[in-house]
Fold:
Amino acid sequence: MRIASFNINGVKARLPRLLEWLEESRPAIACLQEIKSQDEGFPAEEFEKIGYRAIWHGQKGFNGVAILADGEDPAEVVKGLPGDPDDEQARFIECDVKGVRVVNLYLPNGNPQPGPKFDYKLAWMERLRTRMKELLAREVPTVVVGDFNVIPEDRDVWSVAAMASDALMQPESRAAYARILGDGWTDAIATLNPRGGVWTFWDYQAGAWQRDHGFRIDHLLLSPEAADRLVSAGVDKEYRGREKASDHAPVWVELKE
Structure:
């Protein structure tokens, strides 16, 4: 079973590229971030034409997440990260599909830091950890995927110096991510690529794609029950080089059925 994650950077703007990727790679489950669409504007019918059914949590012009399943309706469990009833940002959705609990998230960027946006990021990560602990306690196969906006280690970025002041790799961001892993989650790509050097994002600016100046911020975290079924994980890098591409590449994990 292939579960994939793709920050699409605007579902309508990149719909041809998204449909192309879905038909060519055919993941059983596809999690999208930054759909940048209100709920009523999400193009669910376009995915249904190629056999995918969807749930989504939208927001006008910003954020937004969706989960697509091949030939099956995802059973929505949670929409919006629990823990703060005043948080209206569309960054979290959770469902049961194909015998797996799937969590799809778009973690706050946190820039500029220091400041309120960085404080929001760290608070959001603590709320996420609380929810993920609850999921671990269920002891069922669970996969938490998405754009975490955290570069976990120096091996996950083309230049440590270039990103030193960015919220994505501040000690506080990295420590919050490490605490999540320490609770019992497996970072699939890091586990299979211990030397690092695997990027999932290349900025549109300064020729980052052409120079391979990227970093890894899209992650696939597995509960122990899912990690026991881990076969492989990777990045569909070549899709970043296509015309009108997202600035992220899709990432995926294969689990034994």
